[in-house]
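Appendix B. One record, verbatim.
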Amino acid sequence: MRSKSEIIKFIIYTSILIPITIFILEITFLFINKSNTKLTNGTKYDSLTGWRENCTNKYTNPENYDFLICDRNGFIKTPYEHDRKQKNIYGILLLGNSVAMGEGLYGFDNAKTFASQLEKNLRSFNPKIDLINAAYAGFNTWQEHVETFRYLNSEPFNEDLPSLGLIVSFGGIQDFWNFIRLLSKNNERREEYSFANGMMIDKNNIEYINFLTSISQGNIRRGFIVFLNSIRKNSSILSYIDELRFKNSVKPGIYEKKQLTINLEANIKNKNLREVLEQRLNLDYEEYEKIKNYAIKSTLRNISATANINLDSKYIYVYAPNYFSSLTEKQLKSNDYKYLIGIKHLIGNPIFPLKILEREMHLIEKDYRETLLSAIQRNKKIELIDYSQKVENINWFIDYSHFTEFAASKLSSMLAIEILDIKNK
């Protein structure tokens, strides 16, 4: 048995050696990490839109890392840099979600993204056009509206930003996923006023602010969690370990829309929308119509508000093509029955994932889209472009909504011509 003096020596040596060892390791890995480009998390909290790109160390990608780079103002960069000296620049604000932003088309200084290719095509006709890519992953039409307000309030005193002649919203799928979230009855906080039924920003952002507020009000447990997390984020050793894990994991933005083909029993081969609602969502048609009209009114308010936000700008709403709107009659009538996979995060991360077939989602998307576009057409301030049927093949998608480089090239080329026609009216 050790003597009391030996135990005291052990404690003293340990209390000295462990900090010294950690210090030496931190210094060592600090120099190791400096030789590599340390990437930050993809998003950060934003007080206006809920989140946006975390642009730290994301201003160049000479080695074509799998991320999109930012410009000086935190937008996802497009090839043309605003020239403060050039006169009569015509600004176009591109709004939307990750589809418009260019998710999945990384490297080469963002040259392959939909936004970059759209700007390139527009400038080939008119070199005075400056397109600002204000689209971001997960943005719905409410967040687009807020981002437009931010731009209009910032632009008069920011020499990097051109005045706007046109606003283009390219999307549709994000509000559709929000609609599916409502249908799947996973929104357990519908009656809580502060969450606005999830129709503005995600409830996780509101809970994040509530979390931080509780810390400032003295919640010791949550404060300690933040303290530990700050150590983890600033440790060179842990950063190096995270980088190794990142290199061995699936690269972000490389999407694989995995398929699961099944043999269905005769009684669940849903052939129409009513059957899909009853079998998959446990909804009668009347309840479905009520939720659909609610979701579309919310989206229409956002679109109409943005269209009227700046009297000096025209507003174009483009319903972008998606995988479901692009399924052909032959594919819909085939004997392959494929479940949707990997959409849990898009519909509120339900405890019980939605079990639905591609062809069944096609029926819901078609009905939602046709109702929404019919409502938009009644607003004369909005220039409506329907691209839902513009894709020639579902191979143009890398998942249920994001484009391949080929698709981005084709669609941006077509859209540039239509945008210029509306501009010149």
